[in-house]
Specification:
Helix 2 packs across helix 4, helix 3 packs across helix 4 and helix 6 crosses helix 7. The chain is an alpha/beta fold. It is 53% helix and 13% strand. Bound molecules: shikimate-3-phosphate (S3P). The site of shikimate-3-phosphate has 9 residues, from loops.
C-alpha cells in the first residue's frame, strides 16, 4: 500500500484536532492546514458569520469545497471541523486521500473542554452548561459512525502525544 502523504484529524468539537494536528505537523516536519481557517480565508468571513448570514447548508458546501482543495497538497496534516466527516462524500474523500485519525473523548471530557471555550462555536450557541453534556452525547451518537471509520482511533484518555506520534510514524514512514 502506498504511504499516506496527508493526515486528516477528525473528531468532535473540542477534541483537540487543531492543537494535536499542529504539533504532529511540527513533529513530522510537515505543513499544517486548519480547515475552518481555510474556509474563513476563502469566504472572507468568520465561521460564525457564515452560519448566521448564510446558514449551515451553505457552510457545509464551503467546507466540502475547502476539503476537496486539500487533495492536491502533500506532507500536510489537516485538522477538520467536527462536522466535516459527516456530510456528503467528505469521509470517503479523506479515506481515499490520506490517513484519517479520530481523536476520541467521552462526552463528559468534551463537556469539560467545551464549557471552557469562548462560545465561538455556532452549533453551541444558546445551549447552556446544564444541557451541554446531553447535547454532546446526542450529537456524538449521530456522528460517531463516521468518526469510528477512521483508520486510526486514538483514545485520548489513554494515549499521550508521544504515543500518537509513534503510531502515526508506523503508518506513514
Ligand atoms: C462544527 C465544528 C467546528 C466548525 C463549525 C461546525 C461541527 O469546528 O467547523 O462550527 O459541525 O461540529 P471544531 O470542531 O474545530 O470546533
Amino acid at each position: 500500500m502506498q504511504k499516506a502523504d496527508k493526515i486528516y484529524m477528525i473528531g468532535f468539537m473540542g477534541s483537540g484536532k487543531s492543537t494535536a494536528g499542529r504539533k504532529l505537523a511540527q513533529h513530522l516536519n510537515w505543513s499544517f492546514i486548519d480547515l475552518d481557517e481555510l474556509i474563513e480565508k476563502k469566504a472572507g468571513m468568520k465561521i460564525s458569520e457564515i452560519f448566521s448570514q448564510k446558514g449551515e447548508e451553505s457552510f457545509r458546501l464551503s467546507e466540502s469545497e475547502a476539503l476537496a482543495e486539500t487533495g492536491s497538497v502533500s506532507h500536510t496534516v489537516i485538522a477538520t471541523g467536527g462536522g466535516a466527516p459527516c456530510f456528503g462524500i467528505n469521509m470517503d474523500f479523506m479515506q481515499a486521500h490520506g490517513l484519517t485519525i479520530y481523536l476520541k473523548l467521552s462526552p463528559g471530557k468534551l463537556k469539560e473542554r467545551l464549557a471552557r471555550s469562548n462560545g465561538r462555536r455556532p452549533l453551541l450557541q444558546g445551549i447552556g452548561n446544564d444541557n451541554l453534556e446531553k447535547y454532546i452525547s446526542e450529537k456524538l451518537a449521530e456522528r460517531e459512525k463516521w468518526y469510528l471509520s477512521a483508520k486510526l482511533i486514538i483514545d485520548c484518555n489513554k494515549t499521550s502525544f508521544h504515543g500518537l506520534c509513534n503510531m502515526v510514524k508506523k503508518l506513514i514512514v
